[in-house]
Structures are given as C-alpha cells and as structure tokens.
Amino acid sequence: QVQLVESGGGLVQAGGSLTLSCAASGRSFSSYAMGWFRQAPGKEREFVARIRWSATFTNYADSVQGRFTISRDNAKNTVYLQMNSLKPEDTAVYYCAAGSLWAANYDYWGQGTQVTVSS
Predict the structure, then answer these.
(1) What is the pLDDT of residues 44-83, one digit of tens each?
(2) Is the dihedral angle over the CA atoms 104, 9, 60, 56 positive or is it negative?
(3) Cβ-contact 115, 50 below 8 angstroms
(4) Where are the beta strands (DSSP E) in 28-110?
(5) Mean of the pLDDT values across residues 14-29?
(6) What is the pLDDT of residues 4-16, one digit of tens each?
(7) pLDDT at residue 40 greater than cutoff 80
(8) What does each C-alpha distance from 70 to 38, 40, 43, 48, 73 come to in angstroms?
(9) 21, 42, 47, 98: which has the fewest Cβ within 10 Å?
(10) Which string of DSSP letters, residue by residue, matches 99-115?
(11) CA distance 29 to 77
(12) Could you tell me if 94 and 81 are in contact, meaning their C-beta atoms sit under 8 angstroms apart?
C-alpha cells in the first residue's frame, strides 16, 4: 500500500508559478512510477506528467510541455510538479498517483489539491 498526500495548490494569476508536492508513505515508493493528473469542473480526468521510478524518464501532455516539470526525490518519498507560465485553462484539481509508468489507470491516488489560475 502507498498513501499519497498532495500539497501546494492555491490561487495564482495567469503567468505565475506554483509547485505541487506529493508525499508518499508506505512500502516501496521508489519502485513505482509516479504521475500527475488533473480534473477540471465538468471534464474528465486527464494525464499531465509521469516519471519513471529512477527519474531517468519523464513524459508530459502536449498542453503542459515546456511549462511544467515533474521530478522526484526518492530519499524523501516525494514527487513534485513545478508549474510555470500558468494559464486559466490549467485550473483543476491536481492528483498524484503511483503505479506502472504506462498504465491506463494507476494503482494509488491522492486526494487532490486545487489549483486556480485567474485571468
């Protein structure tokens, strides 16, 4: 079992930055790929970014490529999402998840953190 807790969400103006954190507890955090997903009101949850357990590979949705950076610190059992040049369309609840890198649905999920970008 892996428990995940996100933090760092909030309200920011367009063009601003936020860094989300996801703290993991439980077994074998470092063996899991980690992902960030988001869900805007009235929309389905969508993939944002993923990172291999070793942090040697990352992958991003086209909509955030070049603006967001995913990273992880296995010694701290934490994964991060640095978000720059935020846009109103980035407004959503952001979730971190643990599982297999290319899985359609990850195994463990956090409760989510709200990110709101004002225009």
Answers:
(1) 999 999 999 999 999 999 999 999 999 999 999 999 999 9
(2) negative
(3) no
(4) 33-39, 46-51, 58-60, 68-73, 78-83, 92-99, 108-109
(5) 93
(6) 999 999 999 999 9
(7) yes
(8) 14, 20, 23, 9, 11
(9) 42
(10) E-TT-SS-SEE---EEE
(11) 6
(12) yes
3-class state of residue 86 by DSSP: coil
Angle at 7 between CA 6 and CA 9, to 5 degrees: 115
Token pair for residue 39? 């869900």
Residue type, 59: N
Amino acid at 5: V
Q: Is 44 exposed, middle or buried (0-12, 13-18, 19+ CB in 10 A)?
A: exposed
- DSSP character for 90? G
* C-alpha separations of 88 from 13, 14, 107 in Å: 8, 6, 29
Rounded to whole angstroms, the Cα distance separating 97 from 118 reads 26
Structure tokens of 40? Answer: 């805007």
